[in-house]
Structures are given as structure tokens and as C-alpha cells.
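agent> Task received from the user: take the single chain below, predict its 3D structure, and emit C-alpha cells. No templates, no multimer pairing.
agent> Plan: (1) validate residues, (2) run structure prediction, (3) serialize to C-alpha cells, (4) report one or two observations.
agent> Step 1 OK, no nonstandard residues flagged.
tool_call: predict_structure(input=
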Amino acid sequence: MPVITISRMYGSGGSEVAERVAKTLGWQLFDNELIDAVAARSGLTRTEVTEQEERVPSMVERLAAALSLGSPEILPPAAPIETTEERIVQITNLVIEEAVQTGPAVFVGRGAQSLLAERTDALHVFCFASKSALRDYAMRKFAMGEAEAERTVAEQNKQREHYVKRHWNRDWRSFENYHLCVNTGWLGFEGAAQLVIAAARRHFSLEPA
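)
tool_result: status=success, residues=209
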């Protein structure tokens, strides 16, 4: 089944682009839907999954989690203990792999590009924008001040970069990992979506709607 993965810098509007692409092509969209599916399968709350996804726990958080399980990270455990982070990643991967079998789909973030990197029936997209555009989006979307928006954008993108590196040992920002990189700050969400749609129709030999 053909799939499109849309990796996105925080503040680039990748979710908005993905929504437009999925709606136009008539494909299933997996964005926040992934959070609900992972929460249902893991027994965790939606909030717990949201707080953990696409981020790498700090050393303090990892040590606290290990101590709570009675297996400090400073001592090698007798048997591997699955952390909440690993559990969420494992279930997310399973949900994505199962969703691929159900029909054409658009996946947003969550390492989908890395998980599906070897598929020949996939189109991998990276949404980016200038620092000022990312900051301005965060300010508008979340009613943040300029300084807070800049900090949030920098931290979220660093977390996404570390997340992909930790779980797939891939460079999230390397353009060679993608078929198409779109500057949403220059193209706008609709312009970026139309570019992705055109690339998908050509790549998958789809007839225009």
C-alpha cells in the first residue's frame, strides 16, 4: 500500500500540510489518531502518551523511572525492563506497521519515516521553515510570547532530533533521508500540500481527482 510520511520541524505546520494531503488524496490520516491508538493498546492515558512521544527522557527522568521499578540504571539489571518510553515506541511502531496494511495512508512524525525507510512504496517528506517562521507559528498557535516561542521551538526540535537518533540511529535533519523537503514558511501550508500531492500523484501514478 502506498504511504506518505511527513516529518516536520515544530512550528512548520506539518500536521496542517498532512491533513490537506490526506483529504485531497482520500487517504487515511494518522496524526493524533496514533496517540489514541497507542493509549488504547498500552493502557496509558492520552496525556501520558502525549507527554512521552517524540522526546527522549532526560537522565534524571530515566534514573527516576528505573528506581521506581527497583532497577537503577547504575546497576545492570538481571533482565531488561521495558520503560514507558520503550513501550510507547514499540506500540507506535506496531500501530504504524498494521495501518500500512489497511490502505493508503499519511503518517505524521513518530519516526514513521525511519520505520518505513526501506519501503519502495513510500514518499518521505520533511517540512521545515526559517527560525522566525517557526517562532511566529508557535506564537500564533499557542499564544506564546516571543521568547517562550523561541525556547519551545528549539527544545521541541532538539527532542525530535534526539528521538530519531536514539531509536533509529538516523539523522532527522539529513535531507538525503527524504524524497521531498518543503519550506512551509515560503510556500504556505496550502502551497506545500499541493507540492506534496503533485509529487505523490507522480510517484504513485495516481489519477487526478
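agent> Step 4: summary for the user.
The two ends are 19 Å apart (CA to CA).
agent> Done.
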